User: What shape does this take?
Amino acid sequence: MVETQANVARLDELLERKGVTRRRFLEFCGAIAVSLGLSEALIPTVHEAIAESVIGKETGALTPVIWLELASCTGCTESFAQVDTPDVATVVLELISLNYSETLSAGAGFSLEEAKEQTIEAGGYLVVIEGALMEGWDGNALRIANEKGTEIVKHACANAKAVICAGSCAVDGGWQAGYPNPGGAIGIQSFLTREQAAGSFTYKGGDGNLPPIINVPTCPANPEHMVAVIVDVLLVGKLPDLNSQNKPSLIFSQYIHDNCPRRGHFENGEFVYQFGSEEEKKGYCLYAMGCKGPQTKNNCPIVRWNRRVSWCVEAGAPCIGCAVSDPATTKNNWVDLNAPFLKRFRNLNIGDIRLQPATLAAAVGGIAAVLLVAHAFGMKATGRTKGGADFERQRKWDMQHPDRAIASAPAVTGGASEEDNGTPAATAAENEESKADSKEGGTQ
Amino acid sequence: MTATTPTPRTTPTDPATTVTAVPTTAAVATAASVGNKPNGQSIIDPVNRIEGHLRIDMEVKDGIVDDVWISGGLFRGMELVLEKRRTADAAYISQRICGVCPVSHAHASAIAGDKSYGITIPNGARIIRNLVEGAQFLHSHILWFYNLAALDYVNPLNALSADVAETVKLANSAGTTEADFAGLKARLKAFADNGQLSIFSGNWFDSKELDGSSAYKLPAELDLIATMHYLEALEMQATASEISGIIGGKMPHIMTSIPGGSAFVPTEEKLDDLLFRAIKLRDWVKNTMIPDTLAIVPFYMDEFNYGGNAGNYIAWGVFEAPSFKPEERYLPGGVWSFKEPGYQQVQNWDEELITESTIHSFYDPAIDNGTPIKPRQGITAPLYKDEYMVPNGQHPAQGARYTWDKAPRYDNKVFEAGGLARLLVAYNRKVPEIVEGIDNVLKALGAEGRVELLNSTMGRTGARNIETLYVATKMVDWVNELIEAIKGGNAATFIEPATRTGEGAGMWEAPRGALYHYMKIKDDLIEKYQIIIPSSWNISPRDGDDRHGPMEESLLGCPVEDVAKPIHALRAVHSFDPCVACAVHVSEPATGRKFSVVTNPWGVK
Amino acid sequence: MAHLAHYRQAHPITFVITHWVNLICMVMLVLTGFIIHYPFIPGVMGAARGVHICCAFVILLNLIYRIVAAFFVKSAPTGGTREVEKDIKSFLPQKDNRHQLGAWIKYYLFLKKDHPLGAKYGVPQKLTYDAIPLLLLCIAFTGFCLWVPTSNAPLFVGFTDLVGGIMNVRIIHYFLMWVFIIFIMLHAYLASIEGLAPLRMMFRWKEHKGLVYSPESHTIVGEDKGEEDNKEKS
Assistant: This one.
């Protein structure tokens, strides 16, 4: 991270490197203003903009935003760039001041890091985090600007108004946390919670609380959701209602299944059993193909994708549950929880073995059935098939512990076997004794 | 290629002083011999407007890049996550390696799956995959040119001083589209008046050439036009993604391309949605993107001087033809070089000749000991030690490991992948539209027949736009092909495999170049997975013979006026359209699981 | 004939009915459960879900009734007798079963030749029956986590979050179903190896003569050769 210094000192250092004196620089700004065709009156503004900061004014109508990409595929930015309500240009020119974005920013390298630093120093900004944080090799699995991702996140979140985790990776590590989680991926909320508990992260002015965290899962984050969170926060002036996992509850409280246009086919029992089939052409329900819509909370069928042209199920693909996420742990990432995607169940990982719960259950059930059949043959072989074996005359334990026996051998032998226990029939006296016993003890 | 009928342009502000003649090698020396000549370290970290985290570390001597180290700063471990999952899952998960070119990964994975199953996908699936791949190419190329790369050449803040009437005139004379320039200017002014710079924070618009002139050479009016089209491009890339969305359910990360074909069934009601978007895109590329390219390039002719390298090109080929042969794909596969003996005639590729070296990468030396390895036998294991950390102000030491990226080589030679590689292979395979496109553009720039000029920053940049037009044109053809297939009852989209044990490589192209996925499956479970990403070829570090990767080599000799803002180097890097998050990854060892995690600086497990 | 006499006092009619309800509900729940898990019979998903949920409520109400009734209805605590006590006692430890767990296991494993003496329910049987209400509650609980109208209630959301999401709840629900399947298999098997008499008792409430057991002396005290009309009288 660039050291935080007074802006002027930093500028001087910059100029010095270029071999430019401050006076020459002011002249240079004047020249730019003239060449830009701006009136003389505007010159101070331009001067201020360039000299005082690389982020422009530290006050202005727009909310500053830092968009951090960690271990990301840039898919969430790509996704965001396709929004049309409003379009992304309106967002970055008229709604927010996107001071740092690895994909959209015009700058690069040192000057851009400088912009981020100034934004953090000024405060009052939102942080959008895209991608998982990587903790592998002591955080060296992710280095940006020669700094570990872990440090970048702590630094940027410490002074933020709110932290928006865009996409499942930022929420809980996403696919990168999938077994065996080779790079040590972790979601932002877990990370900050842990770091705060360890005393290595403090949210400025947070009174020991974390910054407000808004988790917006889905792979990638649906641009409609991002706009809803970022822009509506600006319009309404408050954070959205969040559920127990800090996800906006309006978006992530209903199952995809409940809003699915194919739900009717589900109820009718009209299913696709093979891709490319007649059933698929008719738009039947993809439940049998492993659709995860019934256990994924999201409103995809309502907001749809790519300017509402379609969404996964409409295109014929079963939902793979990419919005499933759990900010409290990396273990419940959507890949581990939902793969294999074209099966109704996830796989169970037992050591190196992967198998379906149904396979395991059927195997256990099968073994039980086989054992019973084997037992039945045993019953036949031991001649117990006609209503079981003959009763013992006396409990074996009673025979071995006559002093504490609950019952002695019966007076009437009935059909009980005589040869097995080999003990002579109990005397009537003993029988009486036992009756007395049982009355004392009563039935239990 | 009817689109490019460029006419000589006269612009209101006279660009004659800034447009150099088509350069020669000698021109580089003279250009570099004026102005201040800075010395020292120049770093671009992070490189922006690319996918992923890339660090460029350059040693500058007398204003010229003397040595360079390119480092990918992220390790994620895709192959290990894929292991033990189902074959079809790989298509879903592996595309998450990159949000810019997920479709290509889905397809490379699906092809590897098809081969492992031993099946050939039906005709309908072939066309559908081409369509969604093409939509992604258009999305990626349009976004890249206007929204990522253009800010190296276009200064939207400068557009504030444009004269609207002159801008309209300029647009007409350049043959590009008009729009509400006054409205845009007012919008920009409102933006500037607010004072916050937003995405222009920390910009490089004040970069200068060695001679002290501005590195941003466009007249304000052209800046205004380009800014207008920057905004239009945002719409157009979204339109392209709508095609991906219709076929794939959503974009990024499509849902329907899986081993066996496609889950998307092209019903009649979808055809118009596809066709008219394809036509709209084709017309926009033809009428806006190509004229814009031809209007901007003359101001930056010096970029033909920089960014060149050995000139070896590799392409696996993309857009499957009915024959399913890589060399007959619509953008055919092949290996070709300007100079390398044996490759001056285009050759078919041979998977056996690919090797990867990790001698300069963060992988366990005890396991790979620097020997280049064939991807199917990959025995590398990731390992980072604190000693690899390069302190600020220093370069990586001689022989040091300095990146998460590996160094792929073909036939033990350095090869560049990407749009330029595809185009040069197609040019040498005599694909008519490509031959016509390249010849026409060179002619329009006054460099008829000088194909070698394409081996440069501007060549790479322009080639991608020629490819965009080709793909946009083909998209319309493919929708029509699909319509015919549906009419003829030859549009089946899925085939069930008979066996689910086998192995196979999906060799395909992402917008950024040659993409390789390999899988070995048993009973539908993945036993081994390997990926070689386009940008791995391009941002490759040095190999065992200390040869630079293509991008490193391209940066050598780049002029640097200001070590804090090495604009020519940034343009050269962007010309490769690097995609880094996917380039850095790990392969599964052949000899059982071996995955080391170091918890203390010296504690090698 | 070596088995104890089967008198109606062992299984009062109300419990014959609850047993029937349990049987029907469980079979329907398992069958519809399989259809809901994977619709191998197309066309009946709506019906399957309706029946599944309906049977779930019926079996739960039945469970509640069965438990309450156990405290009010009297039944014979052992086989082979017409003496009755509070039914719940049959589900608690009984002297007749004391020290007999080993004997039962040995008997089932053919390590013991003769049939162990015991109360109405043998030791393994009693343990299983006592576990069933608990299992029913567990499977119903996971069912409510899955059933949308109840799934958002804090209690169920809490459990869902605890086990890591709805997919895991589904797997638990599914495994619990298999516990019931295996229970039904074992139960049916062990009941039928005692001959047809217990089945006739349980399903048709028909008595059958056999050995007479004294709950007082905890042992077999004779044999009821039985007049044919014996069962009609009682």
Remarks:
- The radius of gyration of chain B is 24 Å.
- The longest strand of chain B covers residues 513-522.
- Residues 110 and 259 of chain B are 4 Å apart (CA to CA).
